[in-house]
Amino acid sequence: MNSFRGRDFLRMTDFSREEVLVLLNLAAELKSGKTTVRCEQVLGLLFKKASTRTRVSFSVAMYQMGGQVIDLNTNLTQVSRGEPAVDTARVLDRYLDVLAIRTYEQQEVDTFASAANIPVINALTDLEHPCQVLADLLTVQEEFGTLEDVTLTYIGDGNNVAHSLLLGCALVGMNVRVASPEGYRPEPDIVAQAQAIAGDRTQVLVTHDPTLAAKDSQVLYTDVWASMGQESEAENRMPLFQPYQINDQLLGVADDKAIVLHCLPAHREEEITEAVLEGSQSRIWDEAENRLHAQKALLALLLGVS
């Protein structure tokens, strides 16, 4: 456990397979109440993007451990007036014990991490959403009792969530498939990295065919068709993405015991139908709850508390 202390979590690949499994096991123990952790440290939240689950789950996790949270509203700090990230990072390093950042450019969290000695957590960038995928993996592990050889299929925009799923699934020994329209596939460098991690052990597939990707899959996963910052593209994307909706027909080609995940917020009847989202195979609300437990485990490990 001491190997985590003081480290940053900026990308899924910042942790090894073994470390991800240690974190997930701790999260499961925290959720069950078998283990508790206590701390008196302070978490800062520096969010430039709107947030519900990430903001609340990080805050509740810290409060439940006995720590404190400072919400660094960018509109009320010098960040909004153009203070360089490196200067802000150096100052926050003197006040805080850990910092979670939700922003646009991956370079910004990298800059904070290089300038500050405290752990810096990527709470979402346009490139990756690793904290979400920790909760996703925890949910899959709860459902199937294992991660190895489980197949997860992501349907939709090849965005930050798709990137972290590709890397996270490859790390833990899951098969991962992504079905996206032409022009909206995941970044080739991320796909190549996932394939290198998976090697010959598991499958990493990127395709334009959602039916092929979903066939016999144990997990179907989706996200909004236009992420934050892309709202102006939503109308033009709609006809391109319509064949990539998770509905009863697509669920029907998956494994009989398949579950459905969505990182939320959901646009019902767009990327997912109401019937599937509220159906018996949905684990979306368990997945949302697991943000709390996975992030509590992450904070405890990075802070070195028990």
List the helices and strands and how they pair.
Layout: H1 17-32, E1 42-47, H2 53-65, E2 68-71, H3 85-95, E3 98-102, H4 106-115, E4 120-124, H5 130-144, E5 151-155, H6 160-172, E6 175-179, H7 188-198, E7 204-207, H8 210-214, E8 219-222, H9 234-241, H10 248-251, E9 259-262, H11 274-277, H12 284-303
Parallel strand pairs: 1-2, 1-3, 3-4, 5-6, 5-8, 6-7, 8-9
Helix pairs in contact: 1-5, 1-12, 2-12, 3-4, 5-6, 5-12, 6-7
Brief description of this entry?
The protein folds into two domains: 2-129 and 291-303, Rossmann fold (3-Layer(aba) Sandwich), CATH 3.40.50; 132-287, Aspartate/ornithine carbamoyltransferase (Rossmann fold).
Q: What does this protein structure show overall?
A:
This protein has 306 residues and is of the alpha/beta class. It folds into two domains: 2-129 and 291-303, Rossmann fold, CATH 3.40.50.1370; 132-287, Rossmann fold (3-Layer(aba) Sandwich), CATH 3.40.50. The chain contains twelve helices and nine strands. β1 (42-47), α2 and β2 form a beta-alpha-beta unit. The longest helix is centred in the C-terminal third of the chain and has 20 residues, at 284-303. The chain is globular. It starts with 16 loop residues before the first helix and ends with a helix.
